[in-house]
Amino acid sequence: MIRVQEIYKSFGKAQVLKGVSFEVPQGDILALIGRSGYGKSVILKHVAGLLKPDKGHVFINGSDLCNLRGRNLLKLIERFGFLFQNGALFDSMTIFDNVAFPLREKTRMTERQIRERVLTELEQVGLIGSEGKFPSQISGGMIKRASLARALIEEPDIMLFDEPTTGLDPITGKSILALIDSCHRRIGFTGIIVTHEIPRVFSVVDQVALLHEGVVLFHGSPSEIMTSDDPIIRPFVQAATDGAVK
Ligand SMILES: Nc1ncnc2c1ncn2[C@@H]1O[C@H](COP(=O)(O)OP(=O)(O)OP(=O)(O)O)[C@@H](O)[C@H]1O
Ligand SMILES: [Mg+2]
User: Where are the coiled-coil regions (predicted)?
Assistant: First the structure.
């Protein structure tokens, strides 16, 4: 479903990605982990078609994203849901209108049907009562939850999450992961979660890829990475596990 093949990306003199490859089979979720600044968000932006690799390919269902232009690219990307690292809501719209936006843009649902769907989605993320507020009036955690509701409301085929729980209190973080898990079971999307939430995210994902110095150093199951003896992988997982809020 998602195949990243030998991608290279530099910004100026900084070579960030040095031949990154991995696959996510249809219906699976991959956790993409690794130290800050190593290029996890950059990889996600390549999968989303927002950045083009200097070299290499990103295949979605067999189509090479780099060869698609204009309408064909849009058609493919429309089936994606994104949760960006900073939330990214429209400031001038209420939470309700933000979440309703994709339905109003892309479906022929009536206002009444939209209202019902939006309220159901907001209830799932615990935002009932805040639907009339603007992004500037709610907390960072609430913005993340509203962004999640907006991303999931279209029931996308592919979901890309960039640190969905970072900056949230542990209880809200846990409920966001549970929400991603239940939506995944319901919709069956193929997904990538960029996260530092180790080991908690491991119960939600099927596979883990560890990005290290521009390449995928490890790709396997959560239990494999947890028991790895590799001199780079082991300290990374250990530090993350020690630092996790239990
Ligand atoms: N558009 C850009 N222009 C220039 N440099 C960029 C751009 N986007 C990312 N970078 C650089 O690429 C590197 C990787 O950034 P990225 O945001 O992917 O890190 P990350 O692994 O997601 O880190 P974090 O865990 O802190 O979010 C950084 O050095 C960053 O400064
Ligand atoms: Mg990032």
Answer: none
